[in-house]
Write a structure and sequence with these properties.
This protein has 276 residues and is an alpha/beta fold. The chain has 10 helices and 11 strands. The longest helix has 20 residues.
């Protein structure tokens, strides 16, 4: 029988840890996160809304900077103002936001100590060296799942489908433990590579790409891809198709998403504590 991971349950454990940490802080902390996002991106807007709901319950103040038509100079001015503000502990820039070049320039303008999702080149460099204060939230979320199911990476064959930012971050984090295969849109014999994976992680944003026909018997599947179609959220994995063949799978929605939000907010609290 396939175990369907409940991301909300794992997230609730992280929130419990956050509450215990903030309860020890005196005087009562005033923790603040600023989120800059393009309202035309449904996935990014949904992510910020999920952050907003959970931040409020934790007593974290969320400032939203919503762009209906993103402008580089305006966004840069906001980031510079937030960098200098004592009332902002953390800054999040959601992707996509303008083109890749401008996104990178904006990400690199974020003060490293406020860059809680490891967006800047400086913090990415520390992450690659294993010295980052805050790991990217999605990376921490994947490790939270593996901790929950007691998954030992050593000696395992891991296949990451998707070579964008998320795929690259996960490859960096997992390569020291497991034998790694990274697939992209140019990969030949994708089915063969997927079918050999003990752990399959998909982050393409292509709904239904992964089916029961092309996975290994007993594989663990982590679905990170999310796509909004007609107001409904879909993952890369065709869930009903892999049931009975996969041993463990994270669904979409309510899989890796809630855990990622929780990990991001934990990083926000850590940034506040580190700032002293």
């Amino acid at each position: 029988m396939t175990q369907i991971i409940d991301g909300k349950t794992i997230a609730s454990k992280i929130y419990k840890d956050i509450v215990e940490l903030t309860a020890k802080l005196k005087p009562k902390p005033k923790i603040s996160l600023a989120a800059i996002f393009d309202s035309n991106c449904a996935e990014g807007k949904s992510y910020v809304n999920a952050i907003s709901h959970n931040a409020e319950s934790l007593g974290i103040f969320l400032q939203k900077f919503e762009f209906t038509k993103p402008e580089f100079e305006s966004a840069l001015a906001i980031i510079q103002r937030l960098n200098a503000s004592k009332h902002c502990n953390a800054i999040l820039l959601t992707k996509p936001f303008m083109d890749d070049e401008k996104f990178t320039m904006l990400a690199n303008s974020i003060e490293p100590k406020k860059d809680v999702d490891c967006l800047s080149a400086y913090n990415l460099g520390l992450f690659v060296q294993g010295r980052a204060k805050y790991k990217p939230a999605v990376v921490e979320a994947v490790f939270e799942v593996m901790k929950e199911i007691d998954f030992n990476l050593q000696g395992k064959d891991v296949c990451i489908v998707g070579s964008g930012r998320v795929g690259g971050l996960l490859a960096q984090a997992l390569s020291q433990f497991a034998t790694l295969t990274i697939c992209n849109k140019y990969t030949k014999n994708l089915k063969e590579k997927i079918s050999n994976a003990d752990l399959l992680i998909s982050c393409t944003g292509v709904p239904g790409l992964i089916t029961g026909n092309n996975i290994k018997e007993g594989a663990t599947i982590i679905d990170i891809g999310t796509t909004l179609v007609g107001g409904k959220l879909f993952g890369d994995v065709e869930l009903e198709s892999v049931k009975g063949k996969a041993s463990i799978v994270t669904p979409v929605p309510n899989g890796i998403g809630p855990i990622t939000v929780a990990c991001l907010l934990r990083n926000v609290v850590r940034a506040y504590v580190d700032e002293g």
